[in-house]
Design brief:
Keywords: Repeat. PPR repeats lie at residues 122-156, 157-191. This is Pentatricopeptide repeat-containing protein. Belongs to the PPR family. P subfamily. It comes from Cinchona calisaya. The protein is mostly helical and 220 residues long. The protein has 3 domains: 1-50, no CATH class; 52-154, Serine Threonine Protein Phosphatase 5, Tetratricopeptide repeat, CATH 1.25.40; 156-220, no CATH class. It contains 13 helices and no strands. It has helices spanning 2-14, 20-30, 34-46, 53-65, 69-81, 88-102, 104-116, 123-136, 139-151, 158-170, 174-186, 193-205, 209-219.
Length: 220
């Protein structure tokens, strides 16, 4: 009751600028006052005061933290309605939220639903969903995501390369794994020690000692 009264007085006193409601929403989100933040959000939309993408990111992160995952999808609806682009950070936060709270399958489904709705992933979301597909054993989808990343110029992402090399190693495609490592170097993306682990392990199991030695030298 006190919070409602305070926000009402602030609105009455400060309605001169369009920044007031967004500031109030941000404040209530900071103290996890979900209901008040949502009421103010509706009001801000009616008054055409929603312009800052950072506010929506804060709202999504709060919903994920409080496990109101379905409400993150409502945020996307509002953003589309007020014509604010859904950022890569927001998309990734939703996908990772579903992954942590509901599991990998739920995260993969929500990603595909959001893409169908017109959301455009960036490097962070691509790397996240590629890793999810890899962990689910959906290797063709992981490979497709990697191809999309390359086509869009996101070809210096160590996380994406790491997932692909691990996938090739796990499926016995050591040659493809090493070719990808070489390609990675050509593009100025330095492999880390984890990227070499899969091909190194595969050659060690097959007792291909020359290849093990060769990879070991590359790692140095």
């Amino acid at each position: 009751m006190k919070l409602s009264s305070t926000s009402g007085k602030l609105r009455e006193r400060c309605y001169g600028g369009s920044f007031i409601l967004p500031c109030l929403i941000s404040s209530f989100l900071s103290i996890r006052e979900v209901k008040m933040a949502e009421e103010l959000l509706e009001e801000a939309e009616i008054k055409k005061m929603l312009r800052d993408p950072a506010l929506f990111l804060k709202l999504v992160l709060m919903y994920v933290e409080e496990e109101y995952l379905e409400r993150t999808l409502d945020v996307i609806v509002v953003m589309n309605r007020v014509k604010i682009r859904v950022s890569d950070c927001i998309l990734c936060a939703i996908v990772k939220g579903f992954s942590r709270k509901r599991g990998l399958n739920a995260a993969a489904k929500i990603y595909e639903d959001l893409i169908f709705q017109g959301c455009e992933p960036g490097q962070v979301t691509y790397a996240s969903i590629q890793n999810i597909y890899f962990r689910l054993g959906l290797y063709s989808k992981a490979e497709m995501i990697f191809s999309e990343m390359e086509a869009k110029g996101f070809d210096k992402c160590v996380v994406a390369y790491s997932s692909m090399v691990a996938m090739y190693g796990k499926t016995g495609r050591v040659g493809d794994a090493m070719r990808l490592v070489a390609k990675m170097k050509e593009r100025g993306c330095e492999p880390n020690v984890w990227i070499y682990n899969s091909p190194l392990d595969m050659h060690a199991r097959a007792l291909n000692l020359r290849q093990v030695e060769k990879i070991w030298k590359e790692m140095k």
